[in-house]
């Protein structure tokens, strides 16, 4: 596996650094030649709009003012965004605030309105978005929706052609990603899978971790945009590796949450204060932001949705399929998956995945 990792410095805008590096090393080219064999995005010169976008990112206030004051011809290539759910909306917002020329689509049209208010254009199908844009990013719920939006009737593939790129940031399995890749590449366009680690708040804060694989050229070309939405990015080689990495990470996360839930309930049953358990855990070797952030509300049986439980169960299911494909034993994840299934059957699909604790309460 050819793994590359790029991490961003904390003090300086990651996009600013990425773009400064690009502008230092790349020759001048016409702006419209965005991808493919023709000159690419990372070749845009130092005086280009990309550098304006990078400067705009140095503070939220500057980002807003730059986005609203930049003339249209100063903006970088046209970016499409498909899927404006919990994750897609803040990711798209960050692109707009950084000064990107964004075109959006969502199955439920009303979710496009806040983005349009910020300056995005709206198109009525994934195909129209892909036709209008140089790079199209998709953030869909699951394998079925990712395939439908990319490859279905009026899907994005119909609008793809040589010189364009498709970046799927949804969490799907490798086989799904390869299927979508085949459709996109069949048009002559480039494909990158780039699922993200990090939830609603990291998406809002531009602190996601991208787990990418596929066309290296597209990875390099969209790196400045990934840096707007995230704090780091890994390039993992062939399509399927990004999906696999994401599923392994989320399999661990799902098991951790199930175990934490057991601990909270056990502590209460033996007369301890679960709030104190959260504090103890937060100070020790098993400390994790997930426990500190979600623990206090779990103690109050509150599960404000950041990562929907239905998506965590989907990821457990897909991770177990991955394990099965290589005969890897994963008994802990399998047991945790059963709890998520129980929680779903109790109507908790759209609650945060920390609501898995309710499945254990139901077993008492
Ligand atoms: N939330 C989180 O913390 C994280 C989520 N992820 C992953 O990111 C992806 C999106 O998650 P999130 O934003 O939370 O999910 P949401 O459920 O909030 O959003 C899902 C998006 O997919 C769209 N969609 C669903 N089904 C279809 C369909 N059949 N056709 C077209 N569009 C469809 C929805 O459209 P509509 O608005 O019309 O329903 C919506 O835009 C998932 O793969 C998830 O596993 C990854 C990291 C973190
Ligand atoms: O996929 C969920 C996350 O928090 O990452």
Automatic annotation (TrEMBL):
Its GO CC terms are:
chloroplast
Reactions mediated catalytically: 4-hydroxybutanoate + NADP(+) = succinate semialdehyde + NADPH + H(+); glycolate + NADP(+) = glyoxylate + NADPH + H(+)
Record-linked Gene3D superfamilies: N-(1-d-carboxylethyl)-l-norvaline Dehydrogenase, domain 2, NAD(P)-binding Rossmann-like Domain
UniProt xrefs under Pfam families: NAD_binding_11, NAD_binding_2
* UniProt cross-references to PROSITE patterns, sorted A to Z: 3_HYDROXYISOBUT_DH (PS00895)
**3-hydroxyisobutyrate dehydrogenase-like NAD-binding domain: which residues?**
240-359
InterPro entries cross-referenced by the UniProt entry: 3-OH-isobutyrate_DH-rel_CS, 6-PGluconate_DH-like_C_sf, 6PGD_dom2, 6PGDH_NADP-bd, HIBADH-like_NADP-bd, HIBADH-related_NP60_sf, NAD(P)-bd_dom_sf
Instruction: Give the stretches traversing the membrane.
Output: none
Q: Which domain of life is it from?
A: Eukaryota
Q: Which residues form a coiled coil?
A: none
What's in the keyword line of the UniProt record? NAD, NADP, Oxidoreductase, Stress response
Q: Which GO molecular function annotations are given, in alphabetical order?
A: glyoxylate reductase (NADPH) activity; NAD binding; NADP binding
Q: Which SUPFAM superfamilies match?
A: 6-phosphogluconate dehydrogenase C-terminal domain-like (SSF48179), NAD(P)-binding Rossmann-fold domains (SSF51735)
Q: Which PANTHER family match?
A: CYTOKINE-LIKE NUCLEAR FACTOR N-PAC, OXIDOREDUCTASE GLYR1-RELATED
What this chain does, per the record?
Catalyzes the NADPH-dependent reduction of glyoxylate to glycolate as well as succinic semialdehyde (SSA) to gamma-hydroxybutyrate in vitro. May function in redox homeostasis and play a role in oxidative stress tolerance by detoxifying glyoxylate and SSA generated in glycolate metabolism and GABA metabolism, respectively.
Q: Which family does it belong to?
A: Belongs to the HIBADH-related family. NP60 subfamily.
> What's the protein name?
Glyoxylate/succinic semialdehyde reductase 2, chloroplastic
- Tell me what organism the protein belongs to: Eucalyptus grandis
Its lineage opens with: Eukaryota, Viridiplantae, Streptophyta, Embryophyta, Tracheophyta
